Amino acid sequence: MRRLTLITTISLILTALVVGVATYNLIKLYTHEKENAMQTVGECAENAVLLEIISRMQNSEQASQSYLRLNAFIALAQQKEGRVAEADSMKISLASLLLVGLDVQDDKSKPDMKAMDSIFKMQLARNNLFPEIAAIIPVGTPVPYSVRLWETSYNYNPGSPPAFDVYVSPMHGAVLSRMWGIIIPFIAVILLFLSFSIYLINTIGRMRSIEQMKDDFAHNMTHELKTPVAVAYSAADSMLRYYDQSDELRNKQFLKIILQRLGFLSGMIENILSMSMERFKTMKLDLKHVEVKPVVEEVAGMIELKADKPVTIDIDIPADLSVVADSLHLGNVLSNLMDNAVKYSGDTVDINICADNTSISITDNGIGIGKEDLPYIFDKFYRVTSGDRYEVGGYGLGLFYVKQIVEALGWSIGVTSKPGCGTKFTIIFNGNEER
């Protein structure tokens, strides 16, 4: 168990490290994709500036002269580079306008910011970017937005001071959409690791519970076995040490004690063997119509006789009620439930047994069962280990046997209880009417 716990702890630590490294790399990838998105925003801003300048050139009175200079400059660049693309032509056009000193001394020399913003948004849309806010603002102009924005800048020539500040609202969705191919497998792996970890922790918890139940079982069985063995041993020792052939009554009494204790041990061993799941699978029930009231009355009489405290059992069962069951096992089930009602009670015991064509219930005024124990009371070897209940004899197999027999009959069993308010077991005769 310790080795498994150690392996589990190491596995969880390694899992946490893997998740941490993966998360760190995912954050780096997000940062990289954000930078790519802002680079695209910068390119869209550059195109907006160029298109706005071209628009002013077309409306300028010196447009023809500017275009002649521009074409000459582009032809010279083509000869040097050997290639030119439409976007590169725009950049060269802007550079040529700045280098040759295009004469724009008229009123149209100032940028049309409204037109530039409109072009900028269209350029963003062409690149599948749709921020709520998108603006190009000349450097030094106050930002008219109070929310936090992503920003970059644009300058006419590399190395020159920025001419425009470019602002867009955060585009987390657009950035993440570029990462779905990595995010989805990452989330799937994280969920797989979490599921595995939760399953592993639950398994260890259950194994610890089973180990504790086995320890309790060994402790209880030792206690249960010691008493009859000690009594039988004492009786046999007395016969050997003080044997008197003439005292036949005394000898018979000792032999009777020994036989009783051996019978008790034999019954205990039989009960333990009967708890085997394989035995339950191969066990054949002798099913027939059984009258419920006589079986209950017989079991109740035995419980009242062997109880070491006052026991009152009220029976409210129709005389003609019958079910299809194995009478022997049905009696054992009722005996277990009534015996528990006596064991887990105070100085006096009141048991009420009611039945109809659909169910039978056994209600007591005992000390009750806590809600934390209720889900486990039908588990093999499980015993409530709090308060006086731990001192009660037994080895945690009675209710397990009850549930197995009830389910073998095709029925179901439920329990309601509250500490200090007693317990109620209800057996539902599923399909009894059809039987």
* Strand proportion: 5-15%
Q: How are the strands of the largest sheet arranged?
A: 5-7-8-10-9
Structural class: alpha+beta
Portion in helices: 55-70%
Give the number of DSSP strands: 10
Described by strand count, sense and barrel closure, the largest sheet is: 5 strands, mixed
* Distance between the amino and carboxyl termini: 48 Å
Principal-axes geometry comes out as elongated
Order of helices and strands: HHHHEEEHHHHEHEEHEEHEE
Radius of gyration: 45 Å
How many helical elements? 11
Mean of pLDDT: 77
Write a structural description.
The protein is an alpha+beta fold and 435 residues long. Helices cover 57% and strands 12% of the residues. It has helices at 2-59, 63-81, 86-99, 113-126, 172-177, 180-241, 248-274, 277-282, 292-306, 327-343, 398-408, and strands at residues 134-138, 150-154, 164-168, 288-291, 311-316, 322-325, 349-355, 359-364, 412-417, 423-428. It has a five-stranded mixed β-sheet with strand order 5-7-8-10-9, with helices on one face. It has a three-stranded antiparallel β-sheet with strand order 1-3-2. Strands 4-6 form a two-stranded antiparallel ribbon. Helix 2 (63-81) packs across helix 3 (86-99). The longest helix has 62 residues, at 180-241. Mean pLDDT is 77; it is low at 83-108 and 387-391.
